Automatic annotation (TrEMBL):
The keyword Protease applies. The lineage of its organism: Bacteria, Bacillati, Bacillota, Bacilli, Bacillales. It comes from Terribacillus halophilus. This is ATP-dependent protease ClpP, protease subunit. The keyword Transcription does not apply. One of its GO terms (biological process) is proteolysis.
Length: 243
């Protein structure tokens, strides 16, 4: 009877563990949250549309900022995590949510590296440059354009002023966390004729590097190598302070 009870308990534990992993995959798109039992590097995915205060339709693939922010706090607090890789393939989304994520990543004490894969469009640009070092694969693109609501005519002056100030916050963050100049970023943002019936510029991998928006063209191997260098530098600095 005792053996039968133990077997039942093990089966229940396996089922609950399986459900827990499944829930994490469904909710966060990954099986662990800032625990990394076998690795000192945490991987954060910014995929699809960045969801802010308004919940998007269920058919939209989204990155929910209320999921990302606790992960970043856990990464900062967990002593086992020594570095962060940010994988990006986003169309953009909520501006304030994107800026919040960007500010949190840039304020981490631990080294971080980003990789723009398919795209780092719109508010994805500040997130891409918020890490200590950034990479973009050759085929990836980044769309730089002004902030807008729905494309309708804005009839209230206060609304225009609010959007204009929010746009200034985006420009300030990007230029202070990358090598691109404010004039160049604005030139890309307000370029006419680059996008169909729109204002803005679609920047491909090598161009993003030449403009100073992204540090280097490269993929996972390059990003991991750079992150390991940054983690070694941080350890050396900490050891120097302790001596």
């Amino acid at each position: 009877m005792a053996k039968e009870r133990n077997d039942n308990q093990e089966n229940e534990n396996e089922e609950s563990g399986g459900k827990s992993i499944l829930e994490k995959i469904q909710q966060l798109g990954q099986t662990s949250v800032a625990q990394a039992p076998d690795s000192h590097v945490h991987v954060l995915s910014i995929i699809g549309q960045i969801e802010g205060h308004m919940q998007l339709p269920p058919q939209n693939k989204t990155t929910k900022y209320e999921h990302v922010i606790p992960q970043l706090i856990a990464i900062e607090q967990n002593p086992k995590i020594e570095g962060l890789i940010v994988l990006m393939n986003t169309v953009g989304g909520d501006v304030e949510a994107g800026l919040a994520i960007s500010e949190m990543i840039s304020s981490l004490s631990k080294p971080s590296v980003s990789i723009v894969l398919g795209g780092g469009h719109s508010i994805g640009a500040p997130i891409a440059v918020s890490t200590d070092y950034s990479f973009i694969v050759p085929t990836a693109t980044m769309t730089i354009h002004p902030i807008r609501l729905t494309g309708l005519v804005i009839g209230v002056p206060q609304t225009f002023e609010y959007l204009d100030k929010m746009q200034d916050r985006v420009i300030s963050f990007v230029t202070s966390h990358s090598s691109i100049t404010e004039d160049k970023f604005k030139e890309l943002m307000f370029a006419k004729g680059n996008l169909t019936r729109d204002i803005g510029t679609n920047v491909v991998g090598t161009d993003a590097v030449s403009y100073g928006l992204i540090h280097e063209v490269g993929g996972v191997e390059h990003a991991m190598k750079k992150l390991n260098e940054l983690m070694d530098q941080r350890k050396a600095a900490q050891n120097g302070e302790l001596q």
